[in-house]
């Protein structure tokens, strides 16, 4: 299961459950492993953390023949998904925090 889908499902489950008819990662995990919602959240958040650890190890510690600009784009997409979905659905419900962060990253970056 990819990191992006877990982020999105965690947010949809928490804040917009009534709008979506498909099963989320949280619901699937709860049913498959017969665990509580809290246990499912804990495990899925652990998987997100482990995914970041793996991404960082692969990106920074392992030599590769893939061009750096390609790897940079993949890493930046993961960073963007983390930024947008970490504290809620910042994509469909853009709040002040998301706007300020995007402004800081794109308009006033620290170089």
UniProtKB/TrEMBL annotation:
**GO molecular function, one example?**
magnesium ion binding
Q: Which residues form the Terpene synthase metal-binding domain?
A: 9-54
What superkingdom does the record give? Eukaryota
Q: What protein does this entry describe?
A: Terpene synthase metal-binding domain-containing protein
């Amino acid at each position: 299961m990819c990191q992006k889908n877990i982020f999105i499902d965690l947010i949809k489950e928490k804040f917009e459950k009534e709008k979506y008819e498909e099963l989320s990662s949280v619901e699937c995990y709860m049913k498959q492993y017969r665990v509580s919602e809290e246990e499912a959240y804990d495990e899925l958040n652990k998987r997100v953390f482990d995914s970041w650890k793996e991404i960082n190890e692969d990106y920074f510690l392992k030599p590769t023949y893939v061009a750096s600009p390609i790897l940079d784009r993949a890493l930046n997409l993961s960073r963007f998904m983390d930024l947008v979905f970490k504290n809620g659905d910042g994509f469909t419900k853009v709040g002040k925090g998301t706007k300020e962060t995007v402004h800081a990253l794109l308009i006033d970056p620290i170089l």
